[in-house]
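ARCHIVE RECORD
Type: protein–small molecule complex
Small molecule: S-adenosylmethionine
Source of inputs: curated submission
Record status: active
Notes field left blank by submitter.
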Amino acid sequence: MEKFNRKEFGDYQTPLFFTDTICEYLKNELKIMPEIIIEPTCGIGNFLKSASESLPYEELYGIDIDPAKLKEVDETIPNLTLINEDIFKFKFDNIDKSKNILIIGNPPWATNTELSKLNSTNLPEKSNYRNEMAIDAMTGDSNFDISEAIIRKIITEFKATNTTIALLCKKIVVRNIFKDLIETNTKYSFIRQLNFDSSRVFRIDAEACLLVLQFGGSTLTDMACGVSDLSNPNKTLYRFGFKGGNFYSNIDDVPDIDGECVFEWRQGVKHDCSGIMELDCVDGSLFNKNGNKLSIETSLVYPLLKSSQVKRPIITETSKYIIITQKRINQDTSYIEDEAPETWKYLNNNKEHFDKRKSSIYNGKPDFSIFGIGDYSFKKYKVAVSGFYKSPIFSLVYTDKTFMLDDTCYFLSFDDHDSAYVTMLVLNSPLVKSFLKSIAFLDSKRPYTKRVLKRIDIEKSLETLSLDDLKSVEAELGLGSYLDEKILNDYSRTIKRKFNNKCKA
Ligand SMILES: C[S@@+](CC[C@H](N)C(=O)[O-])C[C@H]1O[C@@H](n2cnc3c(N)ncnc32)[C@H](O)[C@@H]1O
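STRUCTURE (tokenized, with ligand):
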């Protein structure tokens, strides 16, 4: 196996035409005059080459963990020092921090999922990143990226100096870095996200950008970060940032329904064993993913909706099913042997598939454990949304035996139809949709997570939405005319009661 796995070490070298573009931008638009230029994770050194040709400097440093890459760097570049070291171990002590510094480059991009699949150790030594990675992978937030750890290290080292940071990274990394700057009250003098087309530059489909961050000089009090296109860097497309303590993806266009949902958003069932647990119903018989016909009791078999199916406003049917082994997290599963002996036999015959589950959340748990299960899972009516769609559709889903949802879906659950129905209309209203656009980041793999959805304040939304507004949503969704004044008034009263109870608690 090659020593430096391309994925794990994020080995996508930046082409020279693009390193030239970035250096031209720094020279012509930002007019920086660095004395020291550093390229951490420099690879074959295209940034070093472009910077040496277009910017002034006295000292130039390139650091990379892979000696083979450093051999390819153009050694004729004047005043260049190459250092073969792990950037997480590298000490910047020998850099004269009283000088004007430019830190430029393209740190490796590798997400939590990619790194944990590779069992990677390419991470800072003392950190709780590994824990964060496991939690994010479970909740779908997927926040971690190795370039973020590198940029944080650089910020810590250089925040008290006259330094310009110009690093390529994913857009989500810029947001996390920006949040961190604000939350830690770190003063900076300039920040900007400059978008570019990564498929043209790297021939990969990634939501990438150039982060430009400057320290030194007069500091900013504005809690927003402007976003532009690198081809037109002075035209702000939009700004993200904080307003009233909340974070918005578009700070200048926010409907006022930010708060806390009176209902609790939940994530669907997680089991990591779809080959055995998920079943298809064909002509009245159940088959697993391997095409095996099953003769098991129906007591633990529930109708299932997967993310890709949640795209109609009302769903009452499916041909997919799932075996639900627990009613609550950690429940001992040995009860299945008496209650559903054929199911128990089937699960045990396939135990090796459960034992192979990679996620550490199953360690030390009862056999055939699942997550994302509780009383709420068994309520008849649910309003569900896929975490993946850029334009979300909130679906009212119900069937005789309650629907289960997969773990890429989020849902609210209800005992009665009408509360679920009105909630579905409220969530599909243009008001809520435009609010979601201002708080969700559509370039994330999963733009809608519990964290985003729970900010929709249904009570506040009802203050703005009239019966006519909701009837128009109903008509737009092609649902006829079910909603009336009584249903809406009853719903508003329920919401108020819930809100008051929540406040008392
Ligand atoms: C995305 S490439 C970028 C290379 C170069 N900066 C460019 O833009 O062309 C990432 C580089 O990071 C290096 N790298 C990965 N992990 C590293 C680490 N922990 N310390 C130092 N270099 C590392 C890889 O060897 C690779 O050359």
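CURATOR ANNOTATION: The pocket of S-adenosylmethionine is lined by residues 4, 9-14, 39, 41-43, 46-47, 64-66, 69, 86-88, 105-106, 108, 122 (CB under 6 Å).
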